[in-house]
Structure prediction request, 526 residues.
Amino acid sequence: MRAVPARAASAKDDVTVKLIGIFKKLIAEGALLPGGRLPAERELAETFGVSRSSLRQALKVLEIMGVISQRVGDGTYLNSGAQRILGEPMEFLILLDGISFHELMEARLIVEPALAARAADRASDEDIADIRRELIAMQTGDPSRLTAHDLLFHQAIFRAAGNRVCGQMFAVVHRSLENMIRLTSQLVTPDHTLNLHRRIFEAIRKRKPEDARRRMEEHLLDAKSLLVRAMKDREQTDRQTQIAVLSKASRRGLTARSGRKRV
Amino acid sequence: MRAVPARAASAKDDVTVKLIGIFKKLIAEGALLPGGRLPAERELAETFGVSRSSLRQALKVLEIMGVISQRVGDGTYLNSGAQRILGEPMEFLILLDGISFHELMEARLIVEPALAARAADRASDEDIADIRRELIAMQTGDPSRLTAHDLLFHQAIFRAAGNRVCGQMFAVVHRSLENMIRLTSQLVTPDHTLNLHRRIFEAIRKRKPEDARRRMEEHLLDAKSLLVRAMKDREQTDRQTQIAVLSKASRRGLTARSGRKRV
DNA sequence: GCTTGGAGAATGGTATAACCAATTCTTGCC
DNA sequence: GGCAAGAATTGGTTATACCATTCTCCAAGC
Prediction:
C-alpha cells in the first residue's frame, strides 16, 4: 500500500465550489452589483485560472439558483432581486425528504398566523391597500385566476409583515401547493373562501393582531380539511412516465440495490 | 433581415435545465432511490444523448444543492436526506437582497414562538429529552460550544414541532446568524441565556403552548437587543479582501456601469 | 442628417477528445 | 485464505472547435 497522503481529505477541493465561493465574496464585497454585467466566460476563466468548462459549471449553478442570468450573444448579468432563488432547492427538498402536502400545509399553519399577527401590527396604508386589492380581485376577477389571487392575498400579507426571509420561503411553499389548492376550489363556493379572507383582512385593517392570527388559523385549518377531502376524491394521482428511454437505465443501475455500495 | 424563426424563443431550451427536470422526474417516480447509485457520467451522457460536459453541468447543480454526492473513482449517489439543501441558496438570498442580521432576527421572532407553541402541543417524550439534553450541554459542556448548543436547543424545538419544512429553513437562518450570536455571549453571563432557555423548556415540558410562545418571544427579543448592542460595540466589521487577483477584474468589468447594458 | 443593412466581432451553448487522480475490481502469487 | 500488484472504472479538469444568437459599428442609400 502506498503512503497515505498526510493532508486531510475532508475539505473538498472542488473547483466549482471554490468558484462559487469567489462569486459569493465578490457579491458580498460589492464588487459585483445587482444588474451588473460579468466579464465574458472566456475572460473569467482566464482570470481565475480555470478552464471554461469548469467555470461554466459554477455559472450554471448560480443561474439555476437564480443568482445570475445568461443570454447568448449578450452576456452574464447579476440578478437584482432573488425572486425564485429557493424554488428549485425547495422542490428537491420536497422530493427527497418525501414531504407531503400535509406537511406543507402544517408549515403554513405554523407560520402564516404569526405573519398575519405581525401584519396587523405594522402594515402600512399601502400594504393594506395591496391586500385589499387581492381581495377584490378574487371577488370580481377572472374565476380561473381565483387560486392565484388567493395565494397573492397571502403573499401581500407576508409583505405587510415586513420580512423578506419569510416571504421568500413561503412564496415557494405556495407555489408547490398551488395545484392542490386549485382542486379544493371545486368543493366550495368562491364566497366561502372569500369570506374567510375578508375576516383576516378586517382584523389586519383594524390592527388586531390576535384576531388576525386566529382568523388566519381558522382559514388554513379549513383549507387543510378541504384539501384532505379533495385528495381522497381523486385517490390515485396520474403517474407520468414520460422518459421512456430511462426505464432501461433505471432497471440496471439507477436504483439503490446496485453494486459498489459504500462500505 | 433574415426570416425570424417561427418557434417562440421564450421557453428556454437549456439542456442543463432539461436534464435537471429529468432527474427530478426520475426521483419523483421512484426510479432513483435515496442512497442509490447513478450510472457513470459517460453512460448517462450517452443515454440522454448529450455531451459529458453538459451532463456534468446538471450534476454539479444537483451536487451543490445537496441532492447528490459525487466521489472520484467511486460514483454518484443520490443523497438520502436533504440536509443542507437550502444552505447555499439562502446565503445568496441574504447577499442579493441585502438582508441584514436584523431582518433575520425578525424572521426568527415571527416563526420561532409559533414553533415553540407547536412543540408544547405535540412534543413526544423523546423530543423533550432531546431539548433537555441541549439545555444540559449548555450548562455543563464546553464553554466554547455554548453558542452551538444554544442553536441546537432551538433546532430541537423545531423537530419537536414536527415540521421539517420549517426546520430546514431555520436551520439555515441559524447558521447565518451563528457568528453574530456568538458575539452576544460576551455581553452576558451564561446563566442569563440559560435561564431564558430553561423557562422555554419548562413551558414545553408542561404542555403550555401560550407560555412557550411568550417565553420564546421574550428570549428572542432579549437576544435581539443584545445583538444590537454587540454590533454597536464593534461598529466597523472587518472587510476581507482576500481575492486580490480579482480587484483588477472588478475595476474593469464586474461592476454595473459596464457597457452593453440591456436596453 | 437620419435611417437602414450588413459584415464582423463577441458571447453563451454544446460536443469531442484527452489526460489525471482516486477508487474499486480483478488477478495471480504466496 | 490472504494479500499485493495491476487493470479497469469513475469523477475532475483542461483544451479546442464549432454553432446560433446578439451586439457593435460603419458605410451605403434616402
